[in-house]
Amino acid sequence: MSLPPIVYCPTEVALKSAPINPHWVRSGTPEARNALLSRSADGMASTLLWDCTAGEFVWHYDIDETLYFLEGSAIIGDADNPPRRYVAGDVLFLPKGAIAHWQVDSYVKKVAFCRRVQPKLVGVAIRGAAFLKRKLTGGGIPAPVSIGA
């Protein structure tokens, strides 16, 4: 059986305009751009490169998104968490349904790992099928091996 090849995704790519919903902008004129770096075969996961200039806005998340900040900074908070500054090297997870307030003082660039959330019943069925497959094929994590003694 042939496995799919790994795919290199450079982050030095041309970004296209990706305007923020004007109803979400609170101040300034933030200009956002992005580029699709990768997408899973089933379309449920993707990786984007995104950047934005100065401004304040609210973002409504309709997917799970994990952010890895590459350049610049942004102050991000929500109804349950006070605003915090995120800088290059920081990671932030925003689940589907989150509403985050963003403040970009000058510029921010991030990689976004996005995952569409399946209905709970579909997730249960997939995990059940995977469990049965492991049981039937004897797959799974091998038992630890004792060394010495």
Walkthrough of the structure:
The protein is mainly beta and 149 residues long. The protein has a domain at 16-115: Jelly Rolls. 12% of the residues lie in helices and 46% in strands. It has one helix and eight strands. The protein has one helix spanning 120-137; strands at residues 16-17, 25-27, 32-39, 45-60, 64-77, 84-87, 91-94, 99-115. Strands 1, 2, 3, 4, 5, 6, 7 and 8 form an eight-stranded antiparallel β-sheet that branches. A hairpin with a 5-residue loop joins strand 3 and strand 4 (45-60). The longest helix is centred in the C-terminal third of the chain and has 18 residues, at 120-137. The chain is globular and about 60 Å long. The mean pLDDT is 89.
